[in-house]
Amino acid sequence: MTTSSKTARARGQAIEQVAAQWLQQRGLRLIASNHHVKGGELDLIMQDADILVFVEVKHRKSSRYGHPLESVTAQKQQRLVRAARLYLAALRQPVPCRFDVVAMTGTPPDVDIEWVKAAFDAF
Questions:
Q1: Which residues neighbour 91 within 8 Å (Cβ) at sequence distance 6 or greater?
Q2: What are phi and psi of 104, to 5 degrees?
């Protein structure tokens, strides 16, 4: 792994940590972060009352090249759904779940955060 990719990974994890803390302040409970499964990664897995929430965190320093939400394409959604299904299969019990997206724009600590609950459905 190159130094620049290590730095990018560290920045990504720092942003995900900010998102997790922000969501925890709004009542969600962190279950896991950076959960790797075959073919994908789940940024945050959280609990919202009785619902398991898979959270995709997207960050951009500015909206100059588009809003972070725009990067959650149909292909990305399919990868997230596949990863979530693998995670759920390991639980061996059905649980209600949803997919949220947290879009962050700016440079910490000065970031704008947009939380889209149930941003897409498993198809």
A1: none
A2: -125, 135
In a 3-state reduction of DSSP, which class is residue 121?
coil
pLDDT of residue 121: 87
The residue assigned the tokens 């292909």 is 75
Q: Which residue's structure tokens are 């560290």?
A: 10
Q: How far apart are CA 19 and CA 55, in angstroms?
A: 9
Strand order from edge to edge, sheet including 110-120:
29-37, 40-48, 51-60, 97-107, 110-120
**Residue type (1 letter), 102:** V
Cβ contacts of 61 within 8 Å, gap of 6 or more: 105, 106, 107
pTM attached to this predicted model: 0.91
pLDDT in tens, 43-82: 999 999 999 999 999 999 887 788 899 999 999 999 999 9
Between the alpha carbon of residue 58 and those of residues 18, 49, 92, 93, 113, the distances in Å are 12, 24, 29, 29, 10
